[in-house]
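pinned: reference chain
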Amino acid sequence: MQHLLSTADLTRDDALLILDTAAELAQISDRPMKKLPTLRGRTVVNLFYEDSTRTRISFEAAAKRLSADVINFSAKGSSVSKGESLKDTALTLQAMGADAVVIRHAASGAPHRLAHSGWIESTVINAGDGTHEHPTQALLDAYTLRKHLRDGDGDLAGARITIVGDVLHSRVARSNVLLLNTLGAHVTLCAPPTLLPVGVEEWPCAVSYALDQAIADADAVMMLRVQLERMNASFFPSAHEYSRRYGLDAQRMSTLPTHTIVMHPGPMNRGMEIAADVADSKRSVIVEQVSNGVSVRMAVMYLLLGGAESGIGGN
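pinned: its structure tokens
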């Protein structure tokens, strides 16, 4: 596999290879010298058409720890803001000799278009496309889950994961449902009906509208950000009402099984989908998710760019 565009493209063995590789690479973070020479001489371009802090910095840190040269390309202030097309931007990157393009784009399907257009020969990694997918976020979430629920080994067979909130606009939710199902977990989506996408009943997961019931026996609860910037209609009566029915506060957290962890892909709307004291509690692994993201993205680039002969998918 040359690209990482969707978690649907990953077999169980592919996913476990990435997670196992990430676990090995995570040990580098404990060294005084946090670098490997694996991608020395390679160029990785972060092509971000949407604002991002965590994801862009995480990919940049991952590439640099593998000794790659990194070019950060922001659509704002570039030729894109003057009307340059994705094709012309891609041709420019090809001419510059980019070995990998990490792309975040507002249009669902843009990474697939870039990867299969013939415009570039580079490896393409999807860093989030519209409301479609965010595969490396799902991988870092799976890595975090495996670390806490399975001592860092094997798959997630039988684990119960509840994903709560704005599923309709969430590329994280879609990628997680697909990947966690591949790894054997039981996933439940919980949201108001207005924040569930058409066709969700065909996803490999259960659906619930009642939060207290959905989290009662969960091993992990993943809260999703309410993406107000993507909303152009009244999806719920008010922020207060949403928080009351679908927010995770200290009282709700106290009803969870003692081993249950709390997750969030960030950035958070503190006080809306998650209370501040919950986000900062000992059960929260939100900060850990960020650090795990660097190791997972290192693993993806390591495998796709020739760090291992087998690569993802064995080709």
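why pinned: The beta strands are 43-48, 69-74, 100-105, 123-129, 160-164, 186-190, 206-208, 220-223, 261-263. The two ends are 6 Å apart (CA to CA).
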